[in-house]
Amino acid sequence: MMGKLPRILVVGSRTPFDDLFNALESTGAHQLLYAAYWGTARVFLEPPPDAILLHLPDEKRAADQALAWLEKLTGEVPVIVMSPAANMDGYLACMTHGAFDYITAYTPLPDVQRVLESAIRLKKPVAA
After folding, report:
1. CA atoms within 13 A on the CB side of 4
2. Which of 36, 68, 109, 115 is most deeply packed, by most CB within 10 A?
3. Partner residues linked to 54 by β-bridges
4. Residue-by-residue pLDDT tens, the chain, 128 positions
């Protein structure tokens, strides 16, 4: 029997990413937990998840709050930021605030899985 499934906390609106989340859940490789926004996500932070998928809101004030929350998590949990569309300013802001990576609704599932597995390995280093 394999160990416990990696816990992935999804924060923000599911709507733009429903197909992605359904595909990830169907693989059975991860346990996905959902929080409507960063303020309600703290109930899932103890014990810390293996990675966080954070939907960056379109509205500037909400995006700024999400980025501030992201910055607080830097070094504790790898955060992968999700955006419905490619946006260079959004990408740069996320990476500057400590995001592990940035994906869009157009990122192919195998690439999303690769990024998630890299984040999980970072969270749980393998002994040499």
Report:
1. 9
2. 115
3. 11, 81
4. 356 899 999 999 888 899 999 999 999 999 999 999 888 888 888 899 999 999 998 888 988 999 999 998 888 899 999 998 888 888 999 999 999 999 998 999 999 999 999 999 986 654 44
How big is the CA angle at 24 (ends 47 and 10), to the nearest 5 degrees? 40
According to CATH, the topology of domain 8-122 is: Rossmann fold (3.40.50)
Q: How many CA atoms lie within 13 A of 101 on its CB side?
A: 17
d(CA 72, CA 121): 21
28 sits in the region (left: phi over 0; alpha: psi -120 to 50; else beta) called left
